[in-house]
Design goal:
Elements: E1 8-12, H1 22-26, E2 32-37, E3 42-47, H2 58-62, E4 68-72
Antiparallel strand pairs: 1-4, 2-3
This protein binds iron/sulfur cluster (2 copies).
One iron/sulfur cluster is lined by residues 12, 17-23, 44-45, 63, 65, 67-68.
Length: 79
């Protein structure tokens, strides 16, 4: 049986990120990893396993630069 799609996703703003890795360290689900972002030339977090992410927001709360956060999907309603 297919799993329900998560009702949220993790957004990273590379231009705000300073590459400290706190979000990766505090993610207890191993959903994030640091990688070299060629566009910004920085090391930034990336969601490597969205299925493991439970939307706990620890990454968002611990980021000192507001560079990672959860975005909740708004369900489209049929009119
Ligand atoms: S919301 Fe929680 S589980 Fe998902 S990436 Fe952030 S810290 Fe990890
Ligand atoms: S905690 Fe924030 S600033 Fe640090 S690596 Fe994660 S997103 Fe970047």
């Amino acid at each position: 049986m297919p799993k329900d799609k998560p009702e949220f996703f993790v957004r990273v703003e590379p231009e705000l990120c300073k590459g400290c890795g706190l979000c990766v360290a505090f993610c207890g689900r191993d959903a994030l990893k640091m990688y070299d972002d060629l566009k910004s030339g920085k090391r930034v977090p990336q969601v490597v396993n969205m299925e493991r992410c439970n939307g706990c927001r620890l990454c968002e709360w611990y980021c000192p630069d507001f560079a990672i956060y959860i975005v909740e999907k708004v369900a489209a309603k049929a009119i």
